[in-house]
Specification:
The protein is globular and about 45 Å long. It is built from two helices and six strands, in the order βββαβαββ. The longest helix is centred in the middle third of the chain and has 18 residues, at 43-60. Strand 1 (2-8) and strand 2 (11-17) form a beta hairpin. It has a four-stranded mixed β-sheet with strand order 3-6-4-5. Strands 1-2 form a two-stranded antiparallel sheet. The protein is an alpha+beta fold.
Amino acid sequence: MRSIPLIKYFGCISLKINMKEKNNDDYRIRFIRGATTASSNSVYAIEDAVEELIDELILRNNLDKTNLLSIIFTATKDLDACFPASIARKKKGLDSVAFLDCQQMYVSNDINFCIRIMAQVLLPTNNLVKHPYLRGASKLRTDRC
């Protein structure tokens, strides 16, 4: 076993990788963007949207949950029923992921009830990044849907 140092929670962790199975040079830290919309400003609607977005992030990028390092959430100002990160933090296998919530900058005519993410992940170098833009947020980046 060999340790690869990574910065997390303003400190240093060691990511253990079995070097017989994975070569250190075969993995890179990558950033994945994505977004979705909630159907309303309710805890249930936000939970539904966040869970779907996290599931799609993992599924589309064939992510091992242990390779998900951090996620920054932003939400438009019309979403204040709960924190998206608190929902993601409850998902099984994501207890060591660093989460942060921020309010999205207000821009007139922006998409309502929008939740955006930027995820920091460890991916094999040959994996193409697939950015999940779902529901009403799919029109934000039609090139990535």
